[in-house]
């Protein structure tokens, strides 16, 4: 199965205080097996580093979080091409998505992937364009398959 993962999932997996921490962490473990392929935009690295560094007020923790992302087996980071950026722009305007969110949606469409996110607004607005689920929903529906 092809899966595109939003930064919110990686941030929750790295932050034990976040309510969705266990689901996010279990999702990343379950999805990193040969049956699944993970697709994320290169933008993910900056989003994770920024979120973790801001949360912890520690630059080093942001860098460690990026190294953890890069160590995930079968994670493919996809460069934002002009064609994908244009598609993201159309999606952003059509579905009233935030700019970064539209990049994840465009990538999920191109990869024919399920989009996993903890961002409820992104889930709601992207739903007409791509299948969206939370880590908890993904674990219930796909982890055992």
SSE layout and pairing:
Elements: E1 2-5, H1 7-14, H2 21-31, E2 37-41, H3 43-56, H4 59-70, E3 75-78, H5 82-95, H6 99-111, E4 114-116, H7 120-126, E5 132-133, H8 135-142
Parallel strand pairs: 1-2, 1-4, 2-3, 4-5
Helix pairs in contact: 1-2, 1-3, 2-8, 3-4, 5-6
The level of helicity is 55-70%
Which structural category do the helix and sheet elements fall into? alpha/beta
Q: How confident is the prediction overall: mean pLDDT? A: 95
Query: Within the CATH hierarchy, at the fold level, what is the topology?
Result: Rossmann fold
- Termini, distance in Å? 10 Å
The strand line-up of the biggest sheet is 3-2-1-4-5
Q: Rough shape?
A: globular
Major β-sheet, in short? 5 strands, parallel
Radius of gyration: 14 Å
SSE string, helices as H and strands as E: EHHEHHEHHEHEH
Question: What is the number of helices?
Answer: 8
Describe this structure in words.
The chain is α/β, with parallel strands linked by helices and 145 residues long. It has a single domain, classed as 5'-nuclease (Rossmann fold, 3-Layer(aba) Sandwich). The protein has 8 helices and 5 strands; from the N terminus they run E-H-H-E-H-H-E-H-H-E-H-E-H. The protein has a 5-stranded parallel beta sheet with strand order 3-2-1-4-5, sandwiched between helices. Strand 4, helix 7 and strand 5 form a beta-alpha-beta unit. The longest helix has 14 residues. It starts with a strand and ends with a helix. The model has no long low-confidence stretch (mean pLDDT 95).
């Amino acid at each position: 199965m092809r899966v595109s993962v939003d930064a919110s999932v990686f941030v929750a997996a790295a932050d034990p205080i976040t309510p969705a921490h266990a689901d996010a962490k279990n999702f990343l473990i379950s999805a990193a097996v040969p049956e699944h392929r993970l697709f994320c935009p290169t933008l993910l690295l900056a989003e994770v580093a920024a979120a973790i560094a801001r949360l912890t007020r520690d630059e080093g923790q942001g860098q460690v979080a990026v190294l953890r992302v890069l160590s995930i087996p079968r994670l493919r980071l996809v460069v934002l091409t002009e064609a994908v950026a244009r598609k993201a722009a159309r999606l952003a305007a059509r579905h009233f998505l935030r700019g970064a969110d539209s990049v994840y949606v465009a990538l999920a469409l191109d990869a024919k992937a399920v989009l996993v996110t903890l961002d409820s607004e992104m889930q709601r607005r992207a739903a007409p364009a791509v299948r969206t689920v939370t880590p908890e929903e993904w674990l219930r529906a796909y982890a055992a398959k």
